[in-house]
Amino acid sequence: MTASDQVLLSVTMLRPEEKLLLSALRDQGLTARPLLMEDLAEIVAGHTGPPALALIRNLSHRDAINVSRRLEHAGVTTLNRAATIETCNDKGLQALLFARHGIPHPVTRHAFSFDQVRKTVADLGMPAVVKPVSGSWGRGVGKMTHADCVEAWAAGRESVDATGKQFPVVVQEYIDKPGHDLRVVVVGRTPVVAIQRVSDDWRTNTHLGAEVRRVEVTAVMEKLCGQVVDALGPGFYGVDLVEDRSTGELLVLEVNANPEFARSSARHGVNVAGHLAAYVAETLTASAV
């Protein structure tokens, strides 16, 4: 294959996920190689033939957007697209998108100051959840159960951000879930696997020790994921759903544009990397027609 047939895998480092993806892409007969940040200059300068597609798997949100934007402006198709990555990396933007498209989502408000956080928590009622707009693995997420929690949160935040440069944050209604949430992995438009993340903690991130259990993709899950794809466009997503224990309703909590899957795949047995590689091959075949 020529350079223009290559698939680039933009990475910070080769984690198990990226190693699986490289192998799966090559199994599809594609030429695939990693792309580090310092390699980007040669691509955008046109010193090498443009790749057919770039999979964006950078750990840093800033780097992921930076790489995808520059590749797109150089005429390279990226998965996911820069605009999609930007939205998925900002919980506030996601909340606005979900509201505009009628996607069921916990009531979420932006707050641009400490006083707005206090007021918004009081307006929504406690418990409420305060989250940074950008972040993964449950970091920086706080459950406000009474006024002292809010003051403790504000005191800690002020100690590292006295001038409020790290605002906005989002304040979200607390959803009482039945000991688990759901992660649905979407490839293109298709939900390929759903897992429960089970934990005694109110945060059910696998990085915080949640247990993974495979469940069937229900019609409701498929509908919600379809609404997400309609809003964001086809791509590779981890769609997080949460069930309201009091009503049984499923809500879209957030969407991850760079989902990890290696550890969970070892448990549930679905070859996520293979599904994604097959989708890339189908996309390239369709674009060549």
From TrEMBL:
UniProt entry keywords in alphabetical sequence: ATP-binding, Ligase, Metal-binding, Nucleotide-binding
Example GO molecular function: ligase activity
Domain ATP-grasp: 95-281
Classification via InterPro entries: ATP-grasp, ATP-grasp_RimK-type, ATP_grasp_subdomain_1, LysX/ArgX_preATP_grasp, PreATP-grasp_dom_sf, Rp_bS6_RimK/Lys_biosynth_LsyX
UniProt entry tagged with the keyword DNA repair: no
Organism domain of life: Bacteria
Protein name (record): RimK family alpha-L-glutamate ligase
Taxonomic path: Bacteria, Bacillati, Actinomycetota, Actinomycetes, Kitasatosporales
